[in-house]
Prior knowledge:
Layout (H helix, E strand, L loop, with lengths): L3 E6 L11 H4 L4 H14 L3 E6 L3 H14 L2 E5 L8 H8 L5 E5 L21 E4 L4 H15 L1
Parallel strand pairs: 1-2, 1-3, 3-4, 4-5
Helix pairs in contact: 3-4
The structure holds 1,3,4-trihydroxy-5-OXO-cyclohexanecarboxylic acid.
Amino acid sequence: MSKTIYIINGPNLNLLGTREPEIYGSETLANIEAACAKAAKDEGYKIAFQQSNIEGEIVDMIQEAGRKGAALIINPAAYTHTSVALHDALKAIDIPAIEVHLSQPAKRESFRQISYVGQAVHGTISGFGANSYHLGLQAVINLLKT
Ligand code: DQA
């Protein structure tokens, strides 16, 4: 059985650290990747950490996770609120999948109030900054144990 947890990041998350730090914090995506790799290793898993600004590439990443991964964590960023393609890709795979967000979209603009992705995953963790990823990892590892 696969021991790889895919962690997939959507558009503009490559800019974390400098992008609206008052909303998204000062951690870079590389810092988040390093923390996730360590936390996963402590539990006997490795991670495949990916980022793209291109919707179709994220669809490909989700499909790859479905073929090769044990579980999937996704921060779809802005595509959360627009993408039927990501929703459909997540519906098409058969591994535990959860959604994470650094910020709490429910407290933000009205266009962030719908999540196409949230309707296709096991659950959502949002509002804890970079720690949302760590909590997400714990959540999928617990799902894998049950
Ligand atoms: C985000 C929230 C989205 O609404 C936004 O478009 C992002 C980041 C978050 O992690 O808080 O790019 O997914």
